[in-house]
Amino acid sequence: MRSILPRCLRATGAVLAALALAALTGPVAQADAPAIPDFTDGFGLTQVADATEVHSSTDFTITVTTPQVSGPHKIRVFLPRGYAADPDKRWPVTYFLHGGGGSVDDAAAAPALRSDEMITVVPDGGLKGWYADWLMQKTAVGAANWETFHLEQVVPFIDANLRTIPDRAHRAVAGLSMGGSGALHYAQARPDLFGHTASLSGGIDFGMAAIRAAVLATELNLTGAWCAVSNSSSSSGTGKCTGYGPYVDSDAIFGSPYPILGADRIWNAYDPAAPASLSRLADTKVTLYTGDQGVIDANTATAADTVEARLDQLGIPGRLVNYGNGASLSPSCDGGHNYGCWAPAFADYIPRLEAAFAAAATN
Q1: What pLDDT score was predicted for residue 240?
Q2: What is the DSSP letter of 113?
Q3: Rounded CA gap, 104 and 219, in Å?
Q4: What is the C-alpha separation between 27 and 48, in angstroms, rounded?
Q5: How far is 341 from 56, CA to CA, in rounded Å?
Q6: Which residues have a Cβ under 8 Å from the Cβ of 281 and sit 6 or more positions away?
Q7: pLDDT single digits (tens) 86-120
Q8: What's the pLDDT at 317?
Q9: What mean pLDDT do residues 176-192 have?
Q10: Of the candidates 362, 287, 363, 360, which has an alpha carbon nearest to the alpha carbon of residue 92?
């Protein structure tokens, strides 16, 4: 006991000394988490507390809810590296729309989207949202007003919370696969918002039976057709395709796809390749990329050719890059429906977009 007591007293004294030192010096400094901009709720969007994912000070994801689309939804943001260092500077914005079966994290597979000359915003588009306000709002997925969510809520929310240049000359919308049709449609629906649009391997001609069938496949959750992510992690955003979510009625998004007595009127009204839709792009810079290999990009190539021909008929400039089997684009590209082609396509497109943004700033 006599030998134990001094050791206990010495230990107690050490603890008391440590506590006294802490009281004098304050808490031990912790490594600071990367600082990101504060966001204020608004435009119908409410942030989900403690759901923000901070990958770095220039790469983070917030989660929001809205009555327009059931469930929480993520918005990923890539900021230029100079964003925090120059608090008076405003930046152009590009909205990237992911493909069917994809997510906001797919954007990480295209490094060019992490630009030091612009902000990139990646809003959730749903596994099969098709960037539209659905005809049916009481399916297994609930409320599905994706177009309203993006154009009337996300865009003004971003402009209110980040230092953007909020005009069409400094705002672009680009997407791939399902998001390619969404990008072209959004530019047509709101030419006041977007001065630039790009579609990569997009399902942009809703007059094609193959593309209507692809939409139906996503509604019925038939995996494999038109999935924007493949099972090859080397060429995809997430490295997997788990499907398109719960089964919904085949008429849920656009109504009947059959051209009988005008039953397909919603398809025709939305159709990005329709001359009436394309005419709204008279003052918009349009870029299309596609390969022509595999069952999917064989059809996106046909759709892109149709859109280019109709733009020519309307006297609207457009740029089509059909990289065929991919040899002219990149060694990683096989001309198919994957990020092995989309990443280098963005690497070609983004510098051109940055230059257009910069030229607009001088006018």
Answers
A1: 55
A2: G
A3: 20
A4: 30
A5: 27
A6: 187, 188, 191, 197, 311, 316
A7: 999 999 999 999 999 999 999 999 999 999 999 99
A8: 96
A9: 97
A10: 360
121 within 8 A of 75, measured Cβ to Cβ: yes
Q: Does the structure show a pLDDT above 80 at 4? A: no
* Pair of tokens at residue 88: 């008076």
In the predicted structure, residue 51 carries a pLDDT above the cut 70 = yes
- Contacts (Cβ under 8 Å, ≥6 apart) of 226: 99, 100, 177, 178, 203, 214, 217, 218, 296, 337
* pTM score of the predicted model: 0.88
CB 115 within 8 A of CB 80: yes
Choose among 278, 354, 358: nearest CA to 314: 278
DSSP state at residue 333: -
Cα separation, 163 vs 119, whole angstroms: 9
Residue 310, H or E segment: helix 294-314
- Which token pair is 9? 């007293």
CB 311 within 8 A of CB 222: no
Q: What do you get for the CA distance between the two ends of the chain, in Å?
A: 88
